Amino acid sequence: MASLILAAAPPAHLRALAPDALDAPDSAQRAAIEATIARRTAAFAPDGAAADLAWPLQPAPDFDPFDYHGTGYFVDHDPRFPGFLQDYTCGARTYDLDTGYNHAGTDYYLWPYPWLMMDQEQVRIVAAAPGVIVEKIDGNFDRDCAIAGNGGFNTPWNWHLDPDTVSFPEVAIELCDGCPRDVEAAGVSYGAGTFCPWTAEIVAEQN
Q1: Domain ranges for the chain
Q2: SS3 181
Q3: Residue 32: other Cβ atoms inside 10 A
Q4: How far is CA 124 from the centre of its chain?
Q5: Residues 97-131 pLDDT 10s
Q6: ∠ CA 53-65-180 to the nearest 5 degrees?
Q7: What are the start-end ranges of the H helices in the chain?
Q8: SS3 label, residue 124
Q9: Which residues pair with 5 in a beta bridge?
Q10: SS3 at position 137
Q11: How many Å apart are CA 160 and CA 145, to the nearest integer?
């Protein structure tokens, strides 16, 4: 089975990526990828048979979790755009774009500690169907999220607060309470996207 999966980044208000991050290739990169895949798949004669897809994630042999994944967005089954959404439950947990792109996949992510689970290789990505890999690309930075990078001031952590989201409530629930090391381990999934530091106080403001 040979297939080419095309994707596009979700709208900004649905993204977990920093504003300057790119999770879709530019036109030149896409053209190069498509050309490589076309050249390598030319040697294979498609049999025309559709394959049943298996679950694409697998816990490592020594990892026995209660669960290890979450789901972001599903395939958009409504071909109209933009703003016409229908996932497989007839809900709207999907997206489309002004360009005519309707989300064409299901987005999985590791949970509840994605960075830690990735570092410890606790979950594997496995083939969803028999076939031949005709192209693979590795080495891209894969830790970019809404609070990724120390911002030049949050050393030694690999994250920082988004200045546009900082607020000062009088009371915070325990869902988002924690220490900086907890955010470092969990990444963007921590506290459902909200961090409420224990015993925090403002010591300086840096623009």
Answers
A1: 143-197
A2: helix
A3: 11
A4: 15
A5: 888 888 888 888 888 777 788 888 999 988 888 88
A6: 115
A7: 27-41, 114-119, 180-186
A8: strand
A9: none
A10: coil
A11: 10
